[in-house]
Automatic annotation (TrEMBL):
GO biological process terms, semicolon-separated: epigenetic regulation of gene expression
Stated name of the protein: Acetoin utilization deacetylase AcuC
Native source organism of the sequence: Pontibacter lucknowensis
Every Histone deacetylase domain range: 18-289
Family: Belongs to the histone deacetylase family.
Domain of life the protein comes from: Bacteria
Keywords carried by this UniProt record: Hydrolase
Length: 300
């Protein structure tokens, strides 16, 4: 059964002025339920993640200062959110959503989080609406406690996964692959194991050709026992921040390529939604919904 992390806290703990496009966290499950892609049995509400698992990835001093709301004004500005107890609680729930989805993936082949993809969080700081790094926390959990030997991170958000790259810079068991806008945030990029920068306006044909060149080769060369897929839909031409030229159909084909490859190789995969900032919320929800539709079609 497809298991999907979702909680009301994903959208309702955010400060005023930050709730669009975060409304997608409510609208997306509503759409999937309405059309019959999922039932309520597919959804699970994660509890806050235990502190010990946060500390397997993040610096203890940073976590303590974040938890106790002691970050400096400069540090807070870099995260993009006003710091609050509710915001930290939201982040900790999202972290466990991806971790639990990973455990479901070990059982069912795939697990998903309606939130997550917080790839701008570093070991010791937050940036870009990311306080903690859910992909890194879940990957480290699988490596340390579940016997996974090699993890491949496939980060296809329009923004480079700089935090994930930094966290795993010296970890040979995790291969980080980021395909992103070359002239987009973050303007100082970290070095992933493989970075594929894209020109502004990159269209479906060019994007999918590049992905088709790199992904099969990485799966063959790295032989991962687990894949984390950051499936941000800010690659759309309609995205206010993305600067690429992809259609919703092209974004769906991107997701199909990743999920089909994982299913074909029988590699468990966890999907985190990542970014999406189109002016029309319907474009964001539809593009994200395609990822869940494909998961049901390809794995169940």
């Amino acid at each position: 059964m497809l298991k999907i992390a979702w909680s009301e806290i994903f959208a309702h703990s955010l400060p005023e002025g930050h709730r669009f496009p975060m409304a997608k966290y409510d609208l997306l499950p509503e759409q999937l339920l309405y059309e019959g892609t999922i039932t309520k049995d597919n959804l699970f509400a994660p509890e806050p993640l235990q502190e010990q698992y946060i500390l397997d990835t993040h610096d203890a001093t940073y976590w303590q200062r974040l938890r106790d709301l002691e970050l400096s004004p400069s540090e807070i500005r870099k995260t993009g959110f006003p710091l609050s107890e509710q915001l930290v609680q939201r982040e900790v729930v999202i972290m466990n959503g991806t971790l639990q989805a990973s455990l479901f993936a070990l059982e069912f082949g795939i697990g998903m989080n309606i939130a997550g993809g917080t790839h701008h969080a570093f070991t010791d700081r937050g940036e870009g609406f990311c306080l903690l790094n859910d992909i890194a926390i879940a990957a480290n959990h699988l490596l340390k406690y579940k016997g996974i030997k090699k993890v491949l991170v496939v980060d296809l958000d329009v923004h480079q996964g700089n935090g994930t790259a930094q966290i795993f810079r010296n970890e040979p068991r995790v291969f980080t692959f980021s395909m992103h806008g070359g002239h987009n945030y973050p303007f100082h990029k970290e070095q992933s194991d493989l970075d594929v920068p894209l020109a502004e306006g990159t269209d479906d044909k060019t994007y999918l050709k590049l992905l088709g060149e790199h992904l099969p080769r990485l799966l063959d060369e790295q032989e991962p026992g687990f894949v984390f897929f950051q499936s941000g839909v800010d690659v759309l031409a309609t995205d206010k921040l993305g600067k690429l030229g992809m259609s919703i159909a092209g974004c769906k084909e991107r997701d199909r390529m990743v999920l089909e490859a994982c299913a074909r190789h029988r590699i468990p995969v966890t999907v985190s939604m990542g970014g999406g900032y189109s002016k029309q919320i319907a474009h964001i929800v539809e593009a994200h919904a395609n990822t869940f539709r494909l998961a049901q079609q390809l794995f169940f």
